[in-house]
């Protein structure tokens, strides 16, 4: 079992390998994380782990709120996640490699990272200025029939795109922009489909590529049918998620 200890960045979204993650970092705990990552040499990856939040808040309250206007705002690395933060997170996440970390004049950061490797969350350490985690790297096994399933998923995804584009009166991405390698297909479709966090999380933690593709085929067929009756569903980009405000 290969384990690694990395800074932990919980988000209200699921990151997949190969997908781009823009971040607008303004909370002090995550500013401290970025300042530490900037100490890494230019020839070394600036890595941190992203996990989806199961129960908690991505951004900690910064002022007294309802119903108690006198309550002090939460501070520190666990703010918004409770006394035992590991319980607030989904246990499978993704390592992110920060290609760009740019500090603004006000001390906040603009970050552009890319998902690389799936990991399982083993433990969380809250003793420092930001959360760190012990993580087990997860292999990407192809499973049985991944190639044929990928072809079916691509066909279903194109039909799904057409329904979305028609609903939003937007142009459709060309087929040439879509990959054909099964694992890449599985992650691209998982990220691009309009699904809730639990559904995306199930796809991320699928035991192998074939299982993920089979589940996507079912989801795409179902969602395509739904769009016929709900033509106002939102459209998403293929390889980029919206900027996350930590």
TrEMBL record:
<dbReference type="Pfam" id="PF02190">
    <property type="entry name" value="LON_substr_bdg"/>
</dbReference>
<dbReference type="GO" id="GO:0008233">
    <property type="term" value="F:peptidase activity"/>
</dbReference>
<dbReference type="InterPro" id="IPR015947">
    <property type="entry name" value="PUA-like_sf"/>
</dbReference>
<dbReference type="InterPro" id="IPR003111">
    <property type="entry name" value="Lon_prtase_N"/>
</dbReference>
<feature type="domain" description="Lon N-terminal">
    <location>
        <begin position="6"/>
        <end position="224"/>
    </location>
</feature>
<keyword id="KW-0645">Protease</keyword>
<dbReference type="GO" id="GO:0006508">
    <property type="term" value="P:proteolysis"/>
</dbReference>
<keyword id="KW-0378">Hydrolase</keyword>
<protein>
    <submittedName>
        <fullName>ATP-dependent protease</fullName>
    </submittedName>
</protein>
<dbReference type="InterPro" id="IPR046336">
    <property type="entry name" value="Lon_prtase_N_sf"/>
</dbReference>
């Amino acid at each position: 079992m290969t384990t690694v200890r990395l800074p932990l960045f919980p988000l209200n979204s699921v990151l997949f390998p190969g997908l781009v993650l823009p971040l607008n970092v303004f909370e002090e705990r995550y500013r401290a994380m970025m300042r530490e990552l900037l100490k890494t040499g230019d020839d070394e990856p600036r890595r941190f782990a992203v996990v989806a939040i199961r129960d908690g808040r991505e951004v900690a309250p910064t002022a007294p709120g309802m119903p108690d206007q006198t309550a002090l705002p939460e501070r520190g690395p666990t703010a918004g996640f409770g006394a035992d933060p590991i319980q607030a997170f989904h246990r499978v996440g993704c390592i992110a490699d920060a290609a760009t970390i740019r500090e603004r004049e006000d001390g906040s950061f603009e970050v552009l990272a890319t998902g690389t490797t799936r990991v399982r969350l083993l433990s969380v350490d809250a003793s420092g200025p930001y959360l760190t985690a012990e993580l087990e790297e997860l292999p990407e096994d192809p499973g049985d029939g991944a190639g044929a399933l990928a072809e079916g998923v691509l066909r279903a995804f194109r039909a799904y795109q057409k329904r979305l584009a028609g609903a939003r009166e937007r142009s459709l991405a060309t087929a040439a922009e879509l990959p054909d390698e099964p694992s890449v297909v599985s992650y691209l479709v998982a990220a691009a489909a309009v699904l809730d966090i639990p559904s995306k999380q199930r796809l991320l933690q699928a035991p192998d590529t074939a299982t993920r593709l089979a589940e996507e085929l079912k989801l795409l067929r179902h969602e395509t049918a739904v769009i016929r009756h709900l033509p106002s569903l939102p459209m998403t980009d293929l390889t980029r998620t919206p900027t996350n405000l930590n």
